[in-house]
Design a protein that fits this description.
- The chain is α+β, with helices and mostly antiparallel strands and about 120 residues long.
- The chain has two domains: about 1-60 and about 65-70, 2,3-Dihydroxybiphenyl 1,2-Dioxygenase, domain 1; about 80-123, 2-Layer Sandwich (Signal recognition particle alu RNA binding heterodimer, srp9/1).
- It is about 15% helix and about 35% strand.
- The chain is built from two helices and eight strands.
- The protein has helices at about 10-20, 80-90; strands at about 5, 25-30, 35-40, 50-55, 70-75, 95, 110, 120.
- The protein has an eight-stranded mixed sheet, covered by helices on one side.
- It is globular, with a radius of gyration of 15 Å.
- The relative contact order is 0.19.
Length: about 120
């Protein structure tokens, strides 16, 4: 497991909270193909990572925000994301997104755990 991604309502406030108050440092950030933004943070001591995900209202992932839906996804780094995806789907695991290029990055796959939580696999 590489990181947790959480959904946030206000990206700038969340960045300030996690960096200035909790001491995480910003590693990188980007914009998704649908206009959403992500920021990857890391704890300098433990090296645990947290990804903040913000979605604009017209994004297909911008469902109504309510408590309990803050966990966006859990990211796993694996040797061969495509093979991992195929193996898990053939075992009955439900895909969350079709295995297509995501935001210009090849080899990123999403499945759902038994509770519907999205699991990301990348190389």
């Amino acid at each position: 497991m590489r990181y947790f991604g959480i959904r946030v309502k206000n990206l700038e406030q969340s960045i300030t909270f996690y960096t200035e108050l909790l001491g995480l440092r910003k590693i990188r950030q980007g914009t998704m193909h649908h206009g959403g933004k992500w920021v990857l943070l890391e704890d300098p001591r433990s090296h645990q990572r947290l990804e903040l995900n913000w979605y604009p209202v017209d994004s297909p992932y911008a469902t109504r925000y309510k408590l309990g839906e803050e966990l966006d996804h859990i990211g796993f780094r694996v040797q061969d994301p495509g093979s991992t995806f195929k193996k898990l789907v053939s075992s009955g695991v439900t895909p969350a997104l079709a295995p297509v290029d995501k935001d210009g990055v090849k080899g990123v796959y999403y499945l759902k755990d038994p509770n519907g939580i999205w699991i990301e696999f990348f190389g």
